[in-house]
Design a protein that fits this description.
By secondary structure, the chain is mainly α. It contains two helices and no strands. The longest helix has 80 residues. It comes from Vidua macroura.
Length: 141
């Protein structure tokens, strides 16, 4: 089944979109009456075959690529924002835990200082009482 038969000048392009899968055959035929090798001219054919879904409008492809690029950058920025938010939450939790630990440590240090002071006062009172009793027993006072 011939889908396209067209006569072109020295240059020409055509696009073919197949809506069914299968084997497709492309034939080129020169309309020159001279044999190309004897005449010294060359026949140049550039064939660009794209398989799969392709857009025919190059400007639409470029626009879509730019939109995709912007979309990818936007997704990357959103992911970075989420990462920064998670990092800030983590740092807040660590700061809160550190603050609690510091307050507990300060409270423990305060109680330890009070206990040490009471021990020193009680040892001092005990020493004074012991020395007084010693001096009284030795009759030095």
């Amino acid at each position: 089944q011939v889908l396209l038969s067209k006569l072109y000048g020295p240059q020409g392009t055509f696009t073919f979109t197949s809506y069914i899968s299968g084997e497709h055959i492309i034939c080129f035929q020169s309309n020159s009456t001279r044999f190309a090798v004897i005449a010294g001219s060359k026949l140049r054919i550039h064939l660009d075959i794209r398989v799969g879904e392709h857009f025919l409008d190059e400007s639409a492809i470029r626009a879509k690529d730019k939109v995709n690029e912007v979309n990818i950058r936007l997704e990357h920025l959103i992911e970075q924002i989420h990462h920064v938010t998670r990092e800030q939450d983590y740092e807040r939790e660590r700061e809160e835990k550190f603050r609690k630990t510091s307050e507990e440590t300060n409270s423990n240090i305060l109680w330890w200082a009070i206990v040490q002071t009471l021990i020193l006062i009680s040892v001092g009172i005990w020493q004074i009482k012991s020395l007084r009793d010693f001096f009284i027993s030795k009759k030095l006072v």
